[in-house]
Every structure is written in structure tokens, then in C-alpha cells.
Amino acid sequence: MPNHYEVWGVTMLKKNITKASMLTFADRNRIYILFIVVFLFMTLFAPRFFNVFNLTTIMRTMAMNATVAIGFTVILIIGQIDFTIGTVITLSGIIGLGLKEYIGFGGSVPVAILAGGLIGLINGLLVAKAKINSFIVTLGMMTILQGAIYTFTGGNTISLSSEDAFAVSDWLSDMIFPLITPRILITIVLVTAASIFMKKTRTGRNFYMIGGNKHTAWLAGINTDKYTISAFILSGVTAAVGGVFFAMESAAATLNMGTSSLMYVISAAIIGGTAMSGGKGGVFNSFVAILMLDVLYNGIILFGLGNEVKIFIAGFILASVVLYEAFAIYKHEKVIGQRPELLKELELQNAQK
Amino acid sequence: MEKTKLSDATDEGIRQIDTRATSVNLFSKLMHYAGIYAVALMFLLIGIVLQGLGIINSFLTTQNLLNILDAVSMLGIVAVGMAFVTYSGQYADLSVPTTMALTGIVAVQMLKYGFFPALIAAVAAGLVVGIINAVAVGKYKANPIIWTLAVNYVTLGVIRLVWVNKQIYPDMIAKTQRASDLFDSIYRLRFFNKIALPLLMLVVLVFILNFIMKKTKYGMQLKMTGAAQKAAKFSGINTERVIGTAFIICALTATVAGLTITSLSRVGAWYNGTGYDFKAVTAIVIGGMTLAGGRGSIVGVLGGVLIIGLMNNIMTLLGVGTFSQDMIRGFIFILVVGINAKSLRSMGRDDA
User: Fold this and answer.
1) Interface of B with A in 270-299 (CB under 8 A)
2) Position A290 in a domain
3) What are the phi and psi torsion angles at A252 (to 5°)?
4) Residue A11: enclosing H or E segment and its boundaries?
């Protein structure tokens, strides 16, 4: 059987093309493959992994970070970064529980979400209008919010102990379907809505265009400033939603509840295929990546391994993914200007002679 | 200091090409001629005025001014090294905190074999982290923020796996009293009973690194790489090696700071150095180095470090709480950088 065929007189190599296209397919959907591999591994080897109780636990852990990852992925897609998500989570939890005494959850939850949106708005205005690098703006804002959180709470955990607070907490954590509690349902609805919005609407796809090339997007008539500001507002709002519902379910807001989320969400977004340089990735990919990391961590704990193993593996996975992507670009850049397919054809012709 | 005059921007010949509005205000003039030291001087004046009004006392004493310098010397050591990474256009090295922790804990562990083997082991550990960063970011062009963040976590995981979440104490590990004393003296040695060793190290590092950045061939290549990496590459500069060297310099200064902080706290633990990454970025950027790369100087970064020291000292003397200080610091950080960027842009000197 010949290993090449002709299309309109051009000799093509059969084997290489199928291999390359398979690799591309695997690369595009690598997060789903990774998720399936990790899930199967844990199902087969981890003790007490595959049962409704444990899977619900995983879904519960996923709920907060998956919500936060929506906005953060959009921020990465437009080519910016937002370090404030961790502190916004904490702040919204504190506002949501702290104001409950005075205005009830009906008032305090919207206030908490609005506060997140306001912080996003300030970030966005400073980035888009004052033209300060988002790395600096959100870093400074993170310091400010950290100070604000500690100043206003006096360093104490806010916990609720009234009957109705526990009722809300119970309602949020009750299973309505297998694996689904109201908080998980909220998360899934938000993620689905956001991914449809980002992939299927013109407004959503404009975010990708801005991330791909800001100047082209501007020349094409997109109001880049408006989109940048809305991305930051979205990031603030989703971080606040994630934080406030998490705090309500646990009926307590600690001062470091959002600290680990920053690293977690960044890793998930990158592993999910969203590029720091912008214009690539998707909200749903980040969601699956968060789910995969949670399955992995859950499995590590079930194996009886400690927190240090978890930290090491988390860093190791992130490092390998970053290096893998960088290496792919490195290999691609090496052959820019070369025509490998022509060289191969030449070899083929020589072989035929 | 750049040689170009301010008046160039308003020159008749240039205005025809460059139609951007050039508005030069007092602040931008100050920043242009005196650099960040104008702001440092301003804080010093605020301190003196506050003391004159009797709101705070003991600000303008030799001991207090030396205390300010002592307090920021470690931050300064980290910042002047990380400045090379920022200058090369690679934003920041976020793996600094655990590099500090790793080198410190390795040094404490190796004190068993004496003081100098411990130092050599620490430098080797720092070099390993530096080379890993250099290869990944320099050669394979990994995104510097994400990559160094990942390295930070891997190193943290390694420390916590190897030492099983334990802290180790130099006086219990060291076999001889001399080794333990020498290790303690890294932070505590004082010349003329006044000038501490970390401060001296900072001054020496500023001299050496400033010389490297401004006077050597490598410094020129670094400036070009930071300003325009592609142009530098096509003009024959080995940008991979230039960026890699910047990361190695950063890791080595982090090693020095790691030894100092471990000597200060007399304990080797994974949390030594937490927060130094963002603090150093703050100092660097306040010091006038832009994240776009290729602009700024080590002397400016030192100015940024001094401003942070003065600000902390004045606020502490005023009795402002630690966390309110955080808020004010974050606010001033955004403000200074914003004004600086705006005035640079209005002079047509910044395209970032």
C-alpha cells in the first residue's frame, strides 16, 4: 500500500496527515481527555471514590471556583489579568454574612455582588481609561482589599448562628437531584449561560477578537474600552457570586477563604487551554479543568496523602502544561519560513527515482 | 538619567511628525530630572514637617533613619535582582518567595557540615531554580508570570515533601557552635555598631548590578531585549541567553535574601519569604521601571525601596494599623504608577 496519494496533482503523505490531525484534535480537546483519564484512574484505584456521597463532595468543592473561573477566563481571553479575585471572594462573603443582621440575605447578597461589580468597575476604568497595566492595578487593588478586609472585621471570622441562617445554609446544601444541590445548580446554570454567551453571540466573540489583536478589533469598530471594563466587572461579579454563596452554605466567612482560589483558578484556566496572551480558550474548558483538579485532589486525599503532595502535584501539572504549550510554540517558531512539506516531497521524489 | 532633553518633545521639527498633545506638568518634570528620589524627598519632608508640628517624634534621628534602611534591606536585595527580570520585559519572577525559603532551609540543613558548605549548598539550590526558570522562560518562551507561579508551587511542594512540613532550627542542626554563630551573624553582624551586614550587601549589590545594567555589553543587550525583543533577536543578540541570565541573577539575589531572612528568624521553614514577590514588584514599579521592559534603572529601584521604607516608618510612627497601612500602600502604588505612566505618555515617551 502506498503511503502517499495525489490530490489535484499534489503528492500528500497519508500517514503523517492523519497523525498530525489526530494530535491537533487531542490538543484541542486535551482537557476532556485529561478529565476522563483522571476520573477513570481515580474510579479504578482510589478507595471509596465512586459513590454518590464522595462525588457530591467533589461537586460542592467545585462550585465556588467554577463560578469564579467564569469571569477570570473572560479576563484572560481579553489578554488581561486580575489578581483581585481571591480578595473579592473573601470580601463578598464578609459583606453577605456581615450585613445579614441588618438587611437580611435578601439585601446583603445583592450588596455583596454589587460590591464585587464595583471593584471590577474600578479595575476596568483604571486599566481601560487611565491605561495602567492590569498587573499593577489589580496587584494594588488586592493589597487595598486585603487591608480593608482585616480593618473592617478586626481579624475575626464572621459566623452566623441564627435559625434562619442555618435554614438557608441547609437549603443550599440539600440534594435536589443526585449530585446536584441548589448551589451547584446555580454554578452550572451560570457556566452554561456564560459559555453559550461567549461562543454563540457576537458580543461574546468580540472578547476573543480583542484578545487576539486589540488594534484590529478597534479598527473593526469594537469599543475595546467598553469590553475591557465589562470583562473586569464580570470578573468581580462572578467572584462575588462564588464567594457569597460559599459563605452562605458554610454559614461562616473566614478571612482567608479566597486566598487559595487565585492559584487554583489560574491553573484551571491555563490547563483548560486559555492562553495568557489572550484570544484563546473558553469558559467551559475552565469549568472542566476545575472539575478535573477537584477530582485529582479528592483522589489524593482518599489515597491518604497529605496537603504537601497536593501542592506539589498542582504545581507540577501547571508547570508541565505551561512548558508543553511554550514548547509547541517554540517548535512552531523554529520552522517559520521553512517549508517542511516541500522538503518531504523532494525526499519522496528522490526515493521514487 | 537619559540624556535627551524634555524640550525635544516640543521641538518644532518633531511636532510635525508627532501630533500627540505634549503637556508637561510639574510632576513629570520632577520625575524626569530627579527620578523617584523627588518622591522619596517628599516623604522625608512630610516626616520632618510632621515632627516639626509635634505629631510624631523621633523621626529625624540617626537611629530611626538607620532602622528604616535596615527594615527594607532584604526587600531591596530581592528587588534589585528582580529588576533585571522586569527590565528584560518578562514582568516578574513570582518564584522568589519559595526560592528564599528553599535556600534558607537547605543552608540550615547543611550547617551540619559547617558554615561554608551551607552557603555553597544554598547558592547551588538558588542556581537550580534560576536555571529552571532561565531555560523555560528564556529558551522555550513560557509565559513568565504563570511559569514562575508554577515553579513557586513546585518548590513549595518539594520543601514540604522533603522536610515533611517541619521547621528546622540552625542551632539544633549545627554540629559546632561556631557554624551556628556564623549563620546567626548574617543578619546580626554590625559594622561600627551601626551598619548592618544586609544593608552593606544591598549597597554593594546596587553598585555591582547598576554597573552591569548600565555599563556592560550584557546590560546594553538586556535593554534592547527588554525594549524590543524581536528587534534585538534580529540584530544578532542571543535573547534566550540574555533573558535566562536575568532570571539567574534574580534567583541569586533571592538566595542572598533567603539566607538573610532565615538568619533573622533563626528557623528554616516553607513560609520564609512569603509576600516578597509582590512587595518587590511594588518597589520596582514605584522605582520607575515599566513592566513593558527596557526602561528604568537599579538606582531608581533603590529609590522605590526607600519610599516604601519611609512610608511604612512614618505610618507606624503615626500609629496607623498594619492593615490600614496595606490599604494606603496599595493606593499610593496605583497612584504613583498611574501619574508616572500618564506623564510619560503625555511627553510622548511611553507607548505601553
Assistant:
1) 278, 281-282, 285, 291-292
2) no
3) -155, 145
4) strand A10-13
Cα separation, A342 vs A344, whole angstroms? 5
A50 CB near a chain B CB, below 8 Å?
Answer: no
Residue A2, by phi and psi: left (phi above 0), alpha (psi -120 to 50) or beta?
A: beta
Each residue of A264-320: pLDDT tens digit?
Answer: 899 999 999 888 888 888 899 999 999 999 999 999 999 988 888 888 888 898 899
Q: Is A42 among the domain residues?
A: no
CA-based nearest residue to A327, from B103, B160, B230, B135: B135
Contacts with B333 from chain A: Cβ below 8 Å: 136, 139-140, 143
What residues make up the domain containing A198?
Answer: 62-283
The count of structural domains within chain A is: 1
- SS percent in chain A: helix, strand, coil, step 5: 75, 5, 20
- What tens digit of pLDDT does each residue of A136-175 get? 899 999 999 999 998 888 888 888 878 888 888 888 888 8
DSSP β-ladder status, A252-253 and B190-191:
unpaired
Alpha helices in A82-213 (DSSP H): 85-98, 100-128, 134-153, 163-173, 182-200, 202-212
User: For residue B258, which of B185, B150, B186 has the smallest C-alpha distance?
Assistant: B186
Give pTM, 2 decimals: 0.87
Question: ipTM for the complex?
Answer: 0.84
Please check whether residue A94 lies inside any domain of the structure.
yes
